[in-house]
Specification:
Length: about 160
């Protein structure tokens, strides 16, 4: 693993490498995880991914998870473990869906603590990049996430009433 001050960049080729990079990100210690994607697939419904998110949320650092999807309609069906986490940690997880003006964003990414990120260049393409200890590279995604977040609305809630 790299020294904390030296960025480590790894090219990703394919969906499996991208999913492994997301798992790498989730295995790192952090306080704020921001994820943008078109839609979550089965990987976010897995017990391993759920356990990694639970570990992050239980950390003593008062972690937060913010997720923005273009389409969140499948979460109840395909990601019940994520929905359970949302109910249990409703104070720390928010899931939004993009408004029409943000639907043009096409490159999924996740960023942890303004230093580590995973970026897929297009949601239909296999190529991407994992950046670890790369604060300068992560800043771009933190800023983009803030813009996408502003152009989104709550999609699903951890409460029964949806409030």
């Amino acid at each position: 693993m790299s020294d904390l001050h030296e960025p480590e960049l790894r090219k990703l080729n394919g969906r499996d490498e991208y999913e492994a990079a997301i798992d790498t990100l989730l295995a790192r210690e952090g306080r704020t995880l921001r994820i943008f994607d078109k839609q979550f697939g089965a990987a976010f419904g897995s017990s391993e991914r759920s356990a990694a998110l639970r570990r992050l949320l239980r950390a003593p650092s008062a972690a937060r998870v913010q997720i923005v999807l273009h389409d969140a309609s499948n979460l109840q069906r395909d990601c019940p473990r994520l929905i359970d986490l949302l109910r249990q940690f409703s104070h720390a997880i928010e899931i939004h869906e993009t408004e029409p003006q943000a639907k043009a964003a096409y490159d999924p990414f996740a960023v942890l603590d303004n230093r580590d990120y995973v970026h897929r260049f297009h949601y239909d393409g296999p190529r991407g990049l994992l950046g670890l200890n790369d604060a300068q590279g992560a800043l771009v995604f933190v800023q983009r996430f803030a813009e996408i977040w502003e152009a989104s609305t709550p999609a699903i809630s951890g409460t029964t009433l949806g409030l």
